[in-house]
Amino acid sequence: MKPIESVDLKVNGISHTLKAATIQDVIAHFGLTGKPVIVEADGVILTPEQWTRTRTASGMVIELVHFVGGG
Predict the structure, then answer these.
(1) Which of 7, 20, 23, 69: CA 20 to 30 A from 52?
(2) Structural domain contains residue 62
(3) Which position has the higher pLDDT, 68 or 42?
(4) What is the model's pLDDT at position 4?
(5) In 3-41, which positions are buried (b, 16+ CB within 10 angstroms) versus exposed (e)?
(6) Nearest to 29 by CA among 59, 4, 1
(7) Model pTM?
(8) How many domains does the chain have?
(9) DSSP letters of 15-47?
């Protein structure tokens, strides 16, 4: 199996260099696995079913919107 290469991504407006082959890897990196998350990648909203199939690429712009409780 080929090792995951680092990619330069902009996530929520901040540049990151991550070892992330898919959007699911990005979600896991930020500790959001299993949480309600909305993902936009390069202007397209992705369904959860697309997260493991959508490959990352350097220069990709990703927005992660997640919900937190509180009062």
Answers:
(1) 69
(2) yes
(3) 42
(4) 75
(5) eeeebebebeeeebebebbbbbbbbeebeeeeeebebeb
(6) 4
(7) 0.90
(8) 1
(9) EEEEE-SBHHHHHHHTT-TTS-EEEEETTEEE-
Does residue 21 sit within a domain? yes
CATH of the domain at 19: 3.10.20.30
Q: 7: which residues sit within 8 A by CB, 6+ positions away?
A: 17, 18, 19, 20, 56, 57, 58, 60
Residue 1 lies in a domain: no
Domain hosting residue 53, numbered range: 6-66
- Token pair recorded at residue 16: 């990151």
Residue 14 lies in a domain: yes
